[in-house]
């Protein structure tokens, strides 16, 4: 049996012990000898507003197929034991994840215990030493330390600072991280000064972007635009070959009612 860890908010611990992990897709990481690497996702979860985190350790049959890869890249399907071995053999496994396409019943759980909030990376692997982004997508209101960091960076409490033409230019950048940052900022702006009709057409071509993370962020932020194109765009993204993009698009369509 292969051993994996899933990080979850501590308030869910009692329910997890009773019912297991009940989502249709479980994101997890193999148990490795290095504790901070095994629990690397805990700090990112804290940044999203969950003050305390638990590590849920569970088993998966060695031959059961799972998806494995970097969270920002393509995944490959391998047996669970082979996926764990692949991650174990990497020089730098930060940012990698395993996706199990089923819930985890309580009988497969081995341990549920609290994880220190300082374990892991924030924003992205290797981000330490870089200037953080203070846009509302990366630094949501009410998040841990958000107002303090926003004040230190001199960012407006109301949202993105960069002008609209600058953000549009960023969408043409070759770096997917820059594209997703700009897209998230534009999505926030559209709640305020960008409510004009037709603005979604500026970002709609990103539905064909080769990076699935760009398409996923597009699906997340598309409802921010009040545009006749929104439903059609999300319907197209709901048929995307990447499951994360499809899931984001379906959730956004549900939000639109």
TrEMBL record:
Instruction: Output the Gene3D superfamilies linked to this UniProt entry.
Output: Leucine-rich Repeat Variant
Q: What is this protein called?
A: HEAT repeat domain-containing protein
PROSITE patterns for the chain = HEAT_REPEAT
- The organism named in the record is Spirilliplanes yamanashiensis
The source's domain of life comes to Bacteria
Q: Which Pfam families match?
A: HEAT_2
InterPro entries in the record: ARM-like, ARM-type_fold, HEAT_type_2
